[in-house]
Design goal:
The protein has helices at about 10-15, 35-50, 65-70, 85-95, 105-115, 200-220; strands at about 5, 20-25, 120-125, 130-135, 160, 165-170, 175, 190-195, 220-230, 235. It is α+β, with helices and mostly antiparallel strands.
Length: about 240
């Protein structure tokens, strides 16, 4: 990964959006079972319980942290039923299906997403070809989703993270791909929090800071880059 760029086509639709991003170099995501791994699992379990505070209406789509994303997803091309990642997590909580452990880094960012009610994700920076761009795509970018076996290219006018090889994450933060997914072998990573609600600026910055602290505490490594992306600060070198 060379650089992260949120392109003009994104800001034309979401001028007040903010993205808390960082790259971490040389972390160790291969943690074996033990006290530290259990602490991360316990943190995720606690975040599952804490996230219930965001389900403040009987209909999930009307809850404030979800409704802002429902509105946002109406502003670009998507397939029917595509929803923001935070809605998917809270939907599990509402149905009593706990968000369970996957691997240490994914568990940490899922816990932070649940705690703050903001979409959070990550990619293996070593698998991203050239720059990673958040943009309205012309369509046809190759994409193999987690759990799928066939290529599912992007739609024209879809908002996606893409690189020189294809799509990285479809429909803004709806679904990650196999090619850039975080695994136990990931060493250099890109992490991101997303917000479309200007009133949650402080939450976004606090969440980004806490994510950084937890990654360094449990997985080590060095933060190579960290910034808040806005319409006035649209790009950052990965420094990896």
């Amino acid at each position: 990964m060379d650089k992260f760029i949120a392109e003009k086509s994104f800001w034309d639709i979401f001028p007040e959006a903010e993205l808390g991003i960082m790259t971490v170099r040389g972390l160790d995501n291969s943690m074996e079972d033990g006290p530290a791994r259990q602490e991360i699992i316990d943190m995720l379990a606690e975040a599952n319980r804490e996230a219930e505070k965001f389900i403040d209406k009987p209909v999930l789509s009307q809850c404030s942290v979800v409704s802002v994303w429902r509105d946002a997803f109406q502003k670009f091309k998507k397939k029917k039923g595509n929803r923001a990642s935070i809605e998917a997590l809270l939907n599990r909580i509402q149905k009593g299906k706990e968000v369970g452990p996957i691997n240490p880094l994914v568990d940490i960012y899922n816990a932070m997403s649940l705690k703050y009610g903001l979409p959070c994700g990550g990619e293996d920076a070593d698998t991203i070809k050239g720059d990673m761009r958040l943009t309205i795509t012309e369509g046809g970018d190759s994409f193999l989703a987690l759990g799928d076996t066939e290529n599912d290219p992007t739609l024209p006018s879809e908002l996606c993270y893409i690189d020189d090889e294809g799509a990285v994450c479809r429909c803004w933060n709806w679904r990650d791909g196999v090619r850039t997914m975080l695994t136990e072998d990931s060493k250099n990573v890109f992490l991101i929090f997303e917000s479309v609600d200007p009133s949650r600026h402080d939450d976004l910055t606090q969440a980004t800071d806490e994510l950084e602290a937890l990654v360094l505490k449990y997985l080590g490594g060095t933060v190579a880059m960290k910034t808040i992306i806005t319409k006035d600060n649209t790009s950052a070198d990965s420094a990896i």
